[in-house]
Every structure is written in C-alpha cells, then in structure tokens.
Design goal:
- By secondary structure, the chain is of the alpha+beta class.
- It is globular and about 60 Å long.
- Bound molecules: zinc ion.
- The site of zinc ion has 8 residues, from loops.
- Zinc ion binds next to loops.
C-alpha cells in the first residue's frame, strides 16, 4: 500500500475513535432461569446459588442470581451473527468494512476483560452500549500487519444503572498469505477449494511435521508427565516448559461430538462430524470422524486413528469407527 493510501485510511480511522457504535443493544430476553441453567450445565458449574431457589434464598443473595460471566451472553444476537446479510449495520461493522476495503480482510480477537458491578437476577433487562475506544497504529504481528481495535461495552439494567463492562480487542489484519488454492483446471474452471490452513509457529510446527509424515504425536510434560493437546509451550498442570512427545496407540472413544450443517465453508464436506476424541492414553483431541454416517455417531463409540489426506497438500489425523 502506498504511503498516501495508508495516510488516507488512517485519516478515516480517526473518525471512528471515541464514538458509540449505535444505540444501546437490548438483550432479547430478560435474565431468566432457563438460560442460567443451560449455562451452568454447559460450564459444569454446580453452585446452587445459580439454580436452586431454596438454597439460593439462604445465601447473601436471597435468591437466584446469574453467573457473572454470563454478562455478555445476555445481549449476544445468536446465530444471526454468523450471517452477514442479517448483521445489523452500525459504526463497528462500518469500521470493519472500511479496513476490509483497504485489504485488512481478516480478524482475530486478542483480548477480553470483564468487570462485574453487581450480580444479575432473573427479570433484569440488560442493554449494552459499545464505544470504539482506540485504534492502534499499523502493527506488524505474526499473523500479518493490521490495526488493533479496542472497544468498551457498558452493560446497564432497566434502571439505566451500570451492571458491568467489558473491553474487547481485535486485530483486523492483512494475512501474510492467502490459503493455498489448487491451480485452476484447464479451461479456466474454478479451483477446488481447500480446507482452511492451520497457523503454524514455533510451538506447534513439530506436531504438523509429524502429521505430514503420517504420525500423530501427543505432547508430554517433562516435569509432571501430563499429556496435553493441542501443542503449547507450557504445562497447564505444573508450568514446566520441558516436554517430550509420545506416539499414542491411536485408539480411543468419542467423548462428545457435534454435526455441522451451516455455515458451509469452502473445502469441507457437510454434514461434517466434529468430534472430541478421548485417546486411550488419557488426553483428548478435536478431529473429524470419517467412514461413519453422522446419524450413526454415538458418545462412547470406539474409534481408531486414520491419518488421511484431506486435499492434495494436507493430511489430518481423522478417526474412524473401530471394527468390533
Ligand atoms: Zn507438567
């Protein structure tokens, strides 16, 4: 990008700093016990103050309260957020579109901080106001060059009183390289789309190299021996940065799964079974199931590893039903 174009963009960016992105976004429903119960189930939070009216009555809260970490959940828009056609236009979407038009097409969330001013109770009606607090200078990052956008959401109740706030930072960036695409076929037919590429760096390059050789490796802590996946620099159990790897037998069971139908990303076949596999060695890995109709997948089903090419360039560790 020329210096002039960059100056032109940065001039336009300045107009967004300090403004509210739009009118307050009200939560679709009041704070309610059904959503609280679902959240607690999903999070595995058994604190009775969230779900047991009698027990909650005996606490300092004198009744059921919502887990504070649900704060943003009350005002999120649900699946419509995934559909650009249904996305509500506001200054934030305008800012993202502006950056996209200058080539900063990708986005990744990098930081989130939340503060809870008071507990929410069933019946509270929440609305969020978002301010674009700051936009950084152009920064070079491992993902590519881009701009950090900081927003602050303030959550208020039916009386207009603040109940909490959240700061959120995203990097809107120009990716280093577009995902590799197959060469156009003779006659100019559209290239076959490929799966999204993983971001490979210092901490996980060894793992992807092994997969490319047809091998699944699992990281093992050099301090306490705990297995961990996906690969990362430090042990979450003992904070050791020493590690080795093991080659698991490749057998395990389906711990949980979901079947993806929509939205459809190019390069994937749908319905796509996305499964959390519990390896017999004791750690879990997210993978796709193959050789199995989505309707036949069951939790607890024995599976075996099968490292397979998913296109002409990339292999992935997939799992198939074990033959009994
Ligand atoms: Zn450890």
């Amino acid at each position: 990008m020329s210096t002039d174009t960059k100056q032109e963009l940065e001039q336009k960016l300045k107009a967004f700093v300090g403004i509210e992105t739009g009118p307050p976004a009200p939560a679709p429903e009041p704070v309610n016990e059904s959503m609280i119960r679902h959240w607690c189930e999903a999070m595995g939070d058994a604190n009775p103050v969230y779900t047991d009216a009698d027990a909650a009555k005996k606490t300092v809260h004198d009744g059921i309260v919502a887990p504070p970490t649900m704060l943003q959940g009350w005002t999120l828009r649900g699946v419509e957020m995934a559909d650009p056609a249904k996305m509500r236009k506001n200054k934030q979407t305008e800012l993202h579109e502006l950056l996209s038009s200058y080539g900063y097409t990708s986005v990744v969330a990098t930081n989130c901080d939340q503060t809870y001013t008071r507990y929410l109770r069933p019946g509270d009606r929440i609305a969020a106001t978002t301010v674009i607090e700051s936009i950084s200078e152009e920064k070079a990052t491992a993902l590519g060059i881009g701009y950090f956008i900081n927003t602050r959401d303030v959550f208020r109740d039916q009386r207009g009183e603040e109940v909490g706030w959240m700061t959120f930072r995203v990097l809107k960036f120009r990716p280093h390289q577009q995902p590799a695409q197959a060469a156009p076929a003779a006659g100019g037919a559209a290239p076959t789309p490929r799966r999204m590429r993983p971001i490979i760096g210092h901490d996980n390059g060894w793992w992807w190299e092994a997969v490319a050789r047809g091998e699944l490796l699992i990281q093992k802590c050099g301090g306490c021996g705990a297995l961990r996946h996906p690969p990362r620099a430090m042990c979450g159990e003992c904070q050791s940065i020493e590690w080795t790897s093991i080659r698991p037998k490749g057998t395990g069971t389906v711990y949980s799964y979901t079947v993806l139908h929509h939205p459809k990303f190019p390069g994937y076949e749908y319905p796509l079974v996305c499964a959390l596999i519990e390896l017999d060695e004791g750690t879990r890995i997210v993978s796709n199931l193959t050789g199995c109709a989505p309707a036949d997948v069951r939790i607890g089903m024995p599976v075996v590893l099968s490292i397979e090419p998913v296109d002409d360039e990339m292999k992935l560790p997939l799992f198939r039903p074990a033959r009994s």
